[in-house]
Write a structure and sequence with these properties.
Blueprint: E1 7-16, E2 19-29, E3 34-38, H1 45-52, E4 60-65, E5 68-69, H2 75-81, E6 83-85, H3 98-103, H4 117-121, H5 126-144, H6 160-172, E7 178-182, H7 190-205, E8 210-214, H8 218-224, E9 227-232, E10 235-240, H9 242-246, H10 249-260
Parallel strand pairs: 3-8, 3-9, 6-7, 7-8
Antiparallel strand pairs: 1-2, 1-4, 4-5, 9-10
């Protein structure tokens, strides 16, 4: 066992114009686990992800990744440290094909410009060799997520579920140690959800990547999570195993209230 924690959030607080979006949020995440954050709409889940990925700067509290505080670092610096993210709404380049979209996830590892290698300097240049190396890595990601049939197709014309899969592939192209998944199953049908659950478990089991998950589908959360944190109105409600959290009266009240609202 490692003596230092893999990922910690301590007493995180952020407000917007007097509205307290997060209040004293804290948890420790173990390397290799799937840790889920649940809560009703407006509970602060995406705000939490925005703080972790560097889009928001918290008012106070610490975000610690592998012993280093990251709460005041820029998004690209956080990505270079090994934290990748998908978004609730698809953030792909619709006029680019699958291969090109996933390649864009390699930008933090490139010393030359994206896609410039062979076109500008010839096949024997450093830039060309670098691009070939990155393309080989992307091919492995494409094989892993079984995207071979759409590798050369424009993503704008692909089914919604496939686009979500490509966004996941682009995040994996960053070679993260910690993967933030913001509602990866949102908008999917039942078959697409099952496929996504399959990939998430494979990412944990085969690639050894730790996963921090936001998801509204409670059945999915309870099926794949190692531990769950429930929040509401920006505050922690309970933290524990899926079964413990599912049986918590405050969690039941929050979700029943949302369903009836």
């Amino acid at each position: 066992m490692e003596s230092t924690s893999f990922f910690d959030i301590e007493n995180l607080y952020i407000s917007f114009g007097g509205i307290k979006a997060l209040q004293d949020i804290g948890f420790t995440m173990k390397k290799g686990e799937i840790f889920s954050v649940i809560g009703p709409n407006g509970a602060g889940k995406t705000t939490l992800f925005n703080c972790i990925s560097g889009l928001y700067k918290p008012d106070r509290g610490d975000i610690v990744f592998r012993g280093k505080k990251i709460q005041h670092k820029k998004p690209d610096a956080i990505a270079r440290m090994g934290i990748a993210r998908t978004f609730q709404n698809i953030e792909l380049f619709s006029n680019m094909n699958t291969m090109e979209n996933i390649m864009s996830g390699r930008h933090i590892h490139m010393k030359t410009g994206l896609f410039s290698g062979m076109a500008m300097w010839g096949r024997n240049s450093f830039a060309a060799r670098e691009e070939i190396r990155h393309r080989r890595f992307v091919e492995k990601v494409i094989d892993f997520l079984e995207l071979q049939s759409v590798r050369d197709k424009l993503v704008g014309g692909l089914p919604y579920g496939t686009q979500k899969q490509i966004e996941l592939a682009r995040a994996l192209a960053l070679e993260p140690e910690l993967l933030l998944l913001d509602e990866p199953c949102a908008g999917m049908n039942s078959e697409e959800k099952q496929d996504m659950i399959f990939w998430i478990k494979d990412i944990q089991d085969e690639l050894g990547i730790s996963i921090l998950l936001i998801e509204h589908d409670m059945k999915m959360v309870m099926d794949i999570s190692d531990r769950v944190l429930a929040i509401n109105f920006g505050q922690p409600v309970t933290l524990g195993t899926p079964r413990q959290v599912q049986q918590n009266p405050e969690v039941l009240k929050a979700y029943i209230g949302e369903e009836n609202g």
